[in-house]
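User: Can you help me understand a structure? I only have the sequence.
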Amino acid sequence: MAFTLERSRARVGRIGVLSLTTDTPWSLPLFALLLLSVIWGATLHLVERDRESAVRATKETLGELLDTYEAQVGDRKDSFVNE
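Assistant: Let's start by predicting it. Here is the structure, written out as tokens:
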């Protein structure tokens, strides 16, 4: 039995929309779309979580570098004052 548009219209009229979703030509693409949506959602969530982690690590590293720079500048200033 080949799937035709006329046959699907007749089914919608007789049985309803719910039975149309159980046909493979409709259910398989819907399932694939649902699966792809879940995969993309999970991927985007992981990317956002990694981005937030990278921003946090960058802020911590920058703070450490600024502390080191401040200590070095203080040492240099003290060495000029003591000379």
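Now, to help you interpret it: The chain has one domain: 9-82. The first helix runs from residue 5 to 14. Let me know which part you'd like to focus on.
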